[in-house]
Amino acid sequence: MSTQQKQTRRVTINTLREMKGRGEKIACLTAYDVSFAQLLDHAGIDVVLVGDSLGMVIQGLNSTIPVTMDEMVYHGKVVSRGLRHALLVMDMPFMSDASTAQAVANAGRFMKECGANMVKLEGGADQRELVETLTRLGIPVCAHLGLQPQRVHKLGGYKVQGRDTESADKMLNDARVLEQAGADLLLLECVPDALARKLSEQSKIPVIGIGAGSQTDGQVLVLYDILGISVGHIPKFSKNYMLQSGSIQQSVKQYIEEVKSVSFPAAEHTFN
Ligand code: KIV
Question: Which of 122, 179, 189, 258 is catalytic?
Answer without folding.
Answer: 189
